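Tutorial handout. Part one gives the primary structure; part two gives the three-dimensional structure as tokens.
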Amino acid sequence: MSQIPAVIDVLKKALKSQNLTYAEVARHLGLSEVSVKRMFSRRHMTLARLESVCALVQLDFTDLVRLLDEERHRISSLTTAHEEELVSDLKFLLVAICVQNGWTYEEIVDYYDIAGPQCLHYLIRLDRLGLIQLLPNNRIRRMVAQDFRWLPRGPIERFFERHVQKEFLKSHFSRPGELRLYMAGMLSRRSLELMQGRIEMLAREFAALRQDDSRLPAKARLNSGVIFAMRSWELPAFARMRRRH
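Part two.
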């Protein structure tokens, strides 16, 4: 399997870490900014262009491979038992989510009613789960991959369905920064596959933005939620009107 898409993801992080924009990459390659955005979103690039962008960030290909290897040692999911451990204690789950969003130990105990020793106890447990490395002076190194996901139909997703989903949707979505779109129509299976692929791209972009913004202090960020959902579905009231053949 080609490693180019994964390498391009690592290269994208390197660009962002040096505050290099797509416009600067475009000028370096002699391409339009739209073309560069398309290359990164589709995760497809020739080796020549890949090497040229590496030169722009002052990395060689072996550096990218090393960074990719480090990324692969990060975990992309937990076991069912570990997720059950998280949902068994809401404060533990809260600390885990804060850590995933780049909060520091000091920010957690300052913002939430969690005492320092208790927070430290939770951080030690997260270290044992492999979600973080707990460093001296209670510094935290996250060990989750950018594409980290909760287990499909696992304990966390079931917790979400029982306790979060209904509350999340109980809104008019009319305030600044809020958006709700509902569209329905008849699509072919091919079109459904295309839409699902683009939703996956949006999910990766959300994860990348969350990773970038994690460098900012918690007070400079807003707790945000987004749901991507798509399925073959008809309103039950309409379905009951079908003629029975």
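Part three, for discussion. The chain has a mean pLDDT of 87. The chain has twelve helices and two strands.
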